[in-house]
Design brief:
The protein is mainly alpha-helical and about 200 residues long. Helix content is about 65%, strand content about 0%. The chain contains eight helices and two strands, in the order αααββααααα. The chain has helices at about 5-10, 40-50, 50-75, 85-115, 120-145, 145-150, 155-165, 175-185, and strands at about 75, 80. Strands 1-2 form a two-stranded antiparallel ribbon. Helix 3 runs parallel beside helix 5. It is globular. It starts with a helix and ends in an 11-residue tail after the last helix.
Length: about 200
């Protein structure tokens, strides 16, 4: 399940590789940051880069939503295009609304990084919402396509598996909620951020 599942099946490998470093010496000129501060440096990089995950999610959501719109405008059942059904219309409307909200959160995160401000709060909100958004959009698009969406004839089922990972890596949904709530409860940021 996930990005590499097709590659692993093709190559016949049983799973991910493990790297073990034992007795490794790193020349002083190759050390990043200060000795003993690797975790802090790594978390800083993750905080700055965390908004890239919902950026990917936006691209996938745009692609699959367009597929759903095209399908709804061409697929006919009972003598009418399925796009005339209110249930389909609402799934498309909800998907576009969530997609637009995710765009603004990601733009705010990118702006925060660009301004040299601490991006952790904005990036956590962008990642939490963007990862959930793309999961909901892909699920709706699969539903719109019916059984065909579940087959491997369309890329929807692959994206369905792939986007699930967005809620886990670079910090789980629960970790993003922890960061967001901690920032508010401890007064590190205020409601509305820089707009308040």
């Amino acid at each position: 399940m996930g990005w590499r599942s097709e590659f692993i099946q093709t190559m016949g490998e049983g799973g991910p590789a493990s790297l073990i470093f034992d007795g490794v010496r790193v020349p002083h000129r190759n050390i990043l940051g200060e000795i003993g501060q690797g975790f802090t440096l790594g978390m800083e990089w993750i905080g700055k880069g965390r908004y890239t995950i919902p950026s990917h999610a936006i691209g996938i959501a745009e692609r699959v939503l367009q597929m759903a719109i095209d399908y709804a405008n061409t697929r006919e059942t009972f003598g009418a295009k399925i796009g005339t059904n209110q249930a389909i219309q609402w799934m498309i409307a909800d998907s576009e609304t969530e997609l637009e909200a995710a765009r603004w959160l990601v733009l705010r995160s990118a702006w925060t990084v660009d301004q040299g401000l601490d991006p952790r709060h904005a990036s956590s909100m962008g990642k939490l919402y963007g990862a959930g958004m793309v999961n909901r959009v892909v699920d709706r698009v699969l539903q719109i396509h019916g059984g065909m969406g579940y087959t491997r004839e369309l890329p929807i089922e692959r994206w369905y598996r792939q986007v699930r990972l967005y809620r886990i890596f670079e910090g789980t949904d629960e970790m993003q909620r922890l960061i967001i709530s901690r920032d508010l409860l401890r007064g590190y940021t205020k409601i509305g951020g820089h707009l308040a």
